[in-house]
Structure formats: structure tokens, C-alpha cells
Amino acid sequence: MAFAPSLTVVIPAFNEADNLPGVLREALDFVANPEHCRDAQVLVIDDGSSDGTPAVLRSFAAAPRLRIITHEQNRGLTAALRTGFFAADTEYVTWIPADGQIALPELAKILGACHGEEDLILSTYRRRPDGLIRMVMSRTVRLMM
Q1: Which is deepest, 37, 81, 128, 135, by most CB within 10 Å?
Q2: Which of 54, 37, 36 is nearest to 45 (CA)?
Q3: Is the pLDDT higher at 14 or at 1?
């Protein structure tokens, strides 16, 4: 069953020209699929990229369900997410990184578990092939929370 509320998938991008075409194609296919979402869009925040990211975004500009916002200079991930979350005009908002490290089928699993009454949904990986340092940092943050 399709996710009933509307959804914006925010993609913050800083110098992601190499990764962005694949991630954008996958995200646009995801939001266009009525099995995943009733009404969804992709919102890319170009966070002052100095590589070919703006050209990649121009090549996708006419894609349905895509919005692009550009920061004139790099302001960092938190600012890009704030811009995207505040610009979203849907009931739910989520984000994925532009480097492709989160596969969209994972988002489908999360949406499948939603009942439409949640204010906030958090997820975590059970197994992720990160190194020891990242694993220790992640567990430390979870303990602190």
C-alpha cells in the first residue's frame, strides 16, 4: 500500500557531481512510483558546490517532482538540511545523502512501517560495513542519547 501522506525527500549536495546523477535518478524513480508514495517530491539543496554539481542539477531541472534550491556559498550540512526542511511543503520530510550511501529501498521499508500518525520516525542500521572507529562513535552517540 502506498504511503498516504505527502513526502519530500531532501538531498543536501556539496560537490557531488560524480554521485548525484545516479542518486537523483533513483530518488526521482522512487517518488514517481505510486507503490511507495501517493504524493512525493525530491528537493535538492546545492550547498555552494564548486564542482560540476550545478551542471548536473541543470540537466535534471525539467524533471517532474524535482525542486532545486541553491546556497550561493557552502554553509554546511545542518544549514542545507534546515533549508530543505523549511522549504518542504508536504506532511512528511526525510533526507538522504547525495553520495548514495543510503539506498532508497531502505526508505520504502520505513514508509511501509508508518501508520500516518507519527510525528517523528528514526531509523538505524543493524549491520553496516563501517569501520571500527565509526561503529564506536555511533554507539557512543546512541548511548548519550
Answers
A1: 37
A2: 54
A3: 14
3 pLDDT band (50/70/90 cuts)?
A: low
In the 3-class helix/strand/coil scheme, how is the chain assigned residue by residue? CCECCCEEEEEEECCCCCCHHHHHHHHHHHHHCCCCECCEEEEEEEECCCCCHHHHHHHHCCCCCEEEEEECCCCCHHHHHHHHHHHCCCCEEEECCCCCCCCHHHHHHHHHHCCCCCCCCCCCCCCCCCCHHHHHHHHHHHHHC
Tens of pLDDT, residue by residue over 90-131, are 988 999 999 988 888 888 888 877 776 777 777 766 666 677
The alpha carbon dihedral of 50, 56, 60, 62 has a sign of positive
pTM: 0.83
C-alpha 41/C-alpha 31 separation (Å) is 6
